[in-house]
Amino acid sequence: MERSVKKIHEITCKKAFRKLPHRIGPYEFDMNVYRGCAHRCAYCFAVYSQRYLNDDSFYDDIYVKVNIAQQLEKQLASPHWKRQLVNIGSVSDSYQPMEAKYELMREVLPLLIRYRTPCIISTKSDLILRDIDLIKRLAEVTFVNIAVTITTLDEKMASIIEPNAKGIQQRLRAITEIKRQTKAVTGIHVMPVMPYLNDDEASLLSMLELTKQADADYATFAPLHLHGETKVKFFQMLRLHYPHLIMPYEHLYRNRKLDPAYKKAFYERLGPLSEAQGVCIDYMKFAREFFQKQQVEQLSLW
Fold first, then answer.
1. What's the whole-number mean pLDDT along residues 112-137?
2. Which of 215, 233, 212, 216 is nearest to 224 (CA)?
């Protein structure tokens, strides 16, 4: 059953994006327009992330960075900024419900266009289609990767594990339209892959087929990580809806991390399936190719 947030807090930020201590995939800069997320995903790895605000209510208390556009322009206008790739929405979905009111992404995207800053945006909402005009313009001047997260085609399961996210067909329509109308690289993020829930061959094949249906450029799959508060909340969900999986999960995550043998076997299964379906599962490929080409073009100017 869908639950609304309890409190919305308007706050200011000192910086719009931050440099990560370690590169994650193709990016090392990260930006979140909001803190907290109304989607209430049972597997969310970021539920601990508001502790610096002395707030543990990640799902119920949403913080809106009302000055993010002003701070973003300061950073992008800096002579030190080299137009590196920025990941938007790693902790909180930039298109969660309150974005319909605050429209902060309508302020962020024009700045990325003006300063030709490449970005990755992932979401579980079709609200992103509101900004397709800006995404189209941005993709004309730099690299843009838009992805929707779809973990399952089972509507009942989706209502349990991500109760406040938009419906599967709405997400599919969003990524299909972005692919059709813009030059953005598009992807399906099957994240996380949850043992015994959406890791069987039929589920994996359905996601690969969905990727082709949407004409998306890639699909990426990442097994579930369980630690700290994430593990607590995920096990609460298992006890309510999948109690028969408690023991198997305790075994797979007995050393805090996912059993390496399971992880290895999973990717060994996924590889041949993706090849047979002709679906790219290397989501870093497109950013890598863009920046390699950019370097070649810069060198040719000399």
1. 97
2. 233
Residue 298 has pLDDT above 50, yes or no: no
Q: Which amino acid is at 46?
A: A
Query: Among all chains, which residue has been given the structure tokens 């610096």?
Result: 52
Containing H/E element for 25? none
How many angstroms separate the CA atoms of 183 and 271, rounded? 27
Residue with the bigger pLDDT between 301 and 47: it is 47
Nearest-angstrom CA–CA distance, 141 and 114: 9
Tokens 């709405």 identify what position? 170
Which residue shows structure tokens 């440099």?
19
Beta bridge partners of 7: 61
Are 141 and 113 within 8 A, CB to CB? yes
Q: Strand (E) positions, the chain?
A: 7-11, 17-24, 27-31, 34-35, 61-65, 86-88, 119-123, 144-149, 185-193, 218-223
Give which of 241, 271, 267, 238 is closest to 253, Cα–Cα.
Answer: 238
CA atoms within 13 A on the CB side of 277: 25
> Which has the higher per-residue pLDDT, 256 or 170?
170
Question: Which residues in 72-88 are b (16+ Cβ under 10 Å) and which e?
Answer: bbebbeeeeeeeebbbb
Peptide linkage before 79 cis (omega within 30 of 0): no
Confidence of residue 21 (pLDDT cuts 50, 70, 90): confident
Run of H or E including 166: none
Mean pLDDT check: name the lowest of 7-11, 268-272, 281-285, 291-295: 291-295
> Residue written as tokens 């609200």?
127
Residue 257 CA, distance from chain mean position = 21
Instruction: Please determine, for residue 224, whether its predicted confidence score (pLDDT) is greater than 70.
Output: yes
